[in-house]
Amino acid sequence: MPAQQRIAWLGFGALILLGAGTGCGSTRPVVVDAYEEDGPSFVLEAIPVLRGKQSGLELYLGLRPRTLVFTHIDTAYQATYEVLVRLLDEKGRVRYEQAFDDTLQVSTFTATRAYALHLWHRFVPYRPGRYRLEVTVTDRNSRHYTKHWRPVHLPNPSGRGPTLSPVWLERRTAAGRYTMHLGRHMASGSDSLRAAVTLFRLAPSHRVQVQMRLFHFPTDTGVARPPYELTPMPGSLAYQGIRYDRPDTLQVSTRRLEGLRGMVRIDFMLPPLVERGVYRVEVTVRIEGQARRIIRRRELAVHGPTFPQVETLDQMAEALIYLASPDEWAQLQAARTPAQLRARFDAFWGRLVGDRRKAARLLRRYYERIEQANLQFSSIKEGWRTDRGMIYVVLGPPYFVEERLDAQIWYYSYNERDPRYTFVFERVRPPGSGFVHYVLRRQAHYYDLWQRALRRWRTGQGL
User: Fold this and answer.
1) What's the mean pLDDT in 47-58?
2) Cα–Cα distance, 292 to 167 (Å, whole number)
3) In three state form, how does the secondary structure of 137-151 look?
4) In this predicted structure, what is the pLDDT of residue 101?
5) Are 64 and 81 in contact (CB under 8 A)?
6) C-alpha angle 298/300/304, rounded to 5°?
7) Measured between alpha carbons, how far apart are the two ends of the chain, in Å?
8) Residue range 382-399, pLDDT digits in tens
9) What is the fold of 22-303?
10) How many separate helices (H) and strands (E) can be counted in the chain?
11) Is 356 helix (H, G, I), strand (E, B) or coil?
12) In sequence order, what DSSP letters do the residues of 89-147 get, joined into one string?
């Protein structure tokens, strides 16, 4: 396909934003359409640190504005929310609990639908130990909430020998400042990215070597195949998702430290991450005279250049693979110029539904599903490319989901024994990976259901 081009034509694609509205009224609630999300969407980052003799957590949240409910007040839109932070011990007893009330205010309705994360940060002091961190964000307007949790280990300021923080990532903003990059996902081509760690409990007698290595691993970034085809073989890249036995080392940086006391932060500038797939930053600390090494790792999945949005003509055309016939797909793939691809893209949607506005609504609904799949199902690759994303885009959200230790089961019928409407996704976590992905157990009997669903899309039924 031709090189990427921003969508800026007056065909069917230009109608995606029809019906977005502008909002009005002084106190009327404006419900930000989050499709099937039940509560606020946020990304959690928790970095155990020492501040002098006080252990604690540097807690960061990335809140997605489009999943909050805003009210229109005077000349602005405002969402209010509560962040509840709890630390539980190994027996499940609450050892620390604090609630923070906060407000997010934006000036336009468009900003209430933003994908970009709003950064929230607090320092949470508490005594050393191992805990379960629970963070719950509640939307004050809708009363809906979302909870994330993870294990944390707060360091002991009086312990012996140096200790190392987890690796975190920062990126430079348009204003030239560096800010925390939250989560395990990033759009490709991001430059001015750096990895950082902090060494604690240093003494002048310590002679320390800190080495950072950046790896890229072979990763399955392909588009999911139809549910009636063969399931990938265990051990294949399509099944495992990542091959950790064949890393490509992109960068090695080494720093040597001596004569320092207390704590020191160390930054490593990273090259632009252009190729899709999984990357790993690995930081190793060696202390002269000691056999012990300290190793910290941070994995990152790099996706398309506008992730999680689908904004370019190439991206939109590629996502049609689930709806297009083999001949239609071949026509799209054979386009050699942006103008040619644009004409074939418009012609595809125009053929499906004769009514122009109905076609625009169909197109808008399809790409809403694509972007929502990116938000909900991205792992080693963009969510719409995954097996769960494929099923979600074409069939919509399941009636209910059953979680098991080794699988996730989606039901599209209240008859749980009907295999035609039940989809089983095997949970796959390669050893040593920070990512979990799901592989659909494909069945031949899905063919009829799939073809009926495609006909509904292609004829605009239900619009």
Assistant:
1) 92
2) 19
3) EEECCCCCEEEEEEE
4) 96
5) no
6) 170
7) 31
8) 999 999 999 999 999 998
9) Immunoglobulin-like (2.60.40)
10) 8, 23
11) helix
12) -TTS-EEEEEEEEEEEEESSHHHHT--SPEEEEEEEE--SEEEEEEEEEEETTT--EEE
Which residue ranges make up each domain of the chain? Answer: 22-303, 338-459
Which tens digits make up the pLDDT trace of 340-357? 999 999 999 888 877 778
Provide the percentage of residues in the chain whose pLDDT is more than 70: 91
- Identify which of 150, 152, 197 has the alpha carbon closest to the alpha carbon of residue 48: 152
DSSP designation for 246: S
Cα 68 to chain centroid distance, Å, stands at: 18
Q: Which own/partner contact pairs does 17-24 have at CB distance under 8 Å and 24+ positions apart?
A: 18/357, 18/360, 18/361, 18/364, 19/361, 19/364, 20/109, 20/110, 20/113, 21/109, 22/109, 23/72, 23/77, 23/109, 23/112, 24/72
The CB-side HSE value for 46 (13 A sphere, CA atoms) comes to: 22
Torsions phi, psi for 65 (to 5 deg): -55, -35
The two structure tokens encoding residue 91: 């027996």
Q: Which residues contact 61 (CB under 8 A, 6 or more apart)?
A: 42, 43, 44, 45, 83, 119, 120, 121, 135, 137, 182
The pLDDT of residue 213 is above 70: yes
- Which residue in 221, 181, 190, 227 sits closest to 383, CA to CA? 221
Distance of CA 244 to the CA centre of its chain: 21
The DSSP H or E segment spanning 254 is strand 248-258
Neighbours of 205 (CB within 10 A): 10
* ∠ CA 449-455-457, rounded to 5°: 105
170 CB-contact burial (10 Å; exposed 0-12 / middle 13-18 / buried 19+):
middle
| Cα 294 to Cα 307: distance, rounded to the nearest angstrom | 34
Q: Which two tokens stand for residue 363?
A: 């197109």
- 84-98, 164-178, 316-330: range with lowest mean pLDDT: 164-178
pLDDT tens digits along 96-107: 999 999 999 999
**Strand 185-187 to strand 293-303: parallel, antiparallel, or no bridges (unpaired)?**
parallel
User: What is the C-alpha separation between 450 and 370, in angstroms, rounded?
Assistant: 17
To 10 degrees, the CA torsion angle through 165, 166, 169, 175? -30
Mean pLDDT confidence for 313-337: 94
Q: Mean of the per-residue pLDDT values for the chain?
A: 88
